[in-house]
Amino acid sequence: MKIVVIDDVLMNESQIDQLKSLGDLNIYSGTPKNQEETLNRGKDAHIIVSGWTHFSSSTLDRLPNLKMISLWATGYDYVDIGEANKRGVTVTNVPGYAKNAVAELAISLMLSVMRKVPQADRNVKESKAYNWGLFQGMEMSNKTIGIIGTGAIGCRVAEIANGFNMKIIAYDPSPKDEIVRKCNVKYTSCDEIFRESDIVTVHMPLLPSTHNFITEKDFAKMKKNAIFINTARAEIVNQNDLYETLKSRNVFGAGLDEINLSIESGEDLLKLDNVVVTPHMGFNTIEATEIKTNICIDNVRNYLSGGPSNEVRID
């Protein structure tokens, strides 16, 4: 059984040894730059472990020996799942491993934007002076937070928000009674989330139905001093609309863990002083990545044992 780790998957020596025990292992670093590089790395592979590489229908067509893709990720938008299912290629993911990591980054982005932490840090280092009067911010305590998506991460954000004595409202197409009881959450419409929240934070998966889910019409409803946080996938938000909203100062600011740098609005967002951007690092803690890799390897092991775990299918 040939196993290929096709891109940057964080593994310690013990985890590498575990994969070696399951088959003939090749490990690559860096994301393939194009389809041909993907095919060169993945040729003859029966199992591919992947964190960042795209597998389109045409790519899958040219990997005839492929039986499984073990994604080192929760999101599975990098793979054409329908086509993989048709070809009998098992696709697995790693759900729920980073709820603490991503939720804590979301909270840190809220604090960073509201207290202007990056700007203040930069000013002290450049001026070598304490110009505190330039950086009056806002407190999170007693504010209203609107959570869009109450999966594992959204629920964890709600738990933390209780510690700030916040009013918590949420939108999810599948409301959960448990979070209402446990975290004092009130479910409401997406419209009310944008109208009533001091902080809007996004925690929904990227699906065809959530692509461009948030647009100018939503931003137009937000309070002038509200902030927008997205630690989910960038494509859930219309980035051009978000840029125009922030440029016009129609909201206080934004904290974003992923933006699309391949389009003009991505570079434009980096020029704004009311935006904090991090490099898609929400998952990247010592604790979360160890769990993530262990589950990813377990998915391979369970597949080989005949009982796939965390399988992704589109029925």
UniProtKB/TrEMBL annotation:
The keyword NAD applies. This is Glycerate dehydrogenase. Keywords: NAD, Oxidoreductase. Signal peptide: none annotated. It comes from Anaeromicrobium sediminis. It comes from the Bacteria. GO terms for molecular function: NAD binding; oxidoreductase activity, acting on the CH-OH group of donors, NAD or NADP as acceptor. Belongs to the D-isomer specific 2-hydroxyacid dehydrogenase family. Residues 4-311 form the D-isomer specific 2-hydroxyacid dehydrogenase catalytic domain. The keyword Cytoplasm does not apply. InterPro entries: D-iso_2-hydroxyacid_DH_PdxB, D-isomer_2_OHA_DH_cat_dom, D-isomer_DH_CS1, D-isomer_DH_NAD-bd, NAD(P)-bd_dom_sf.
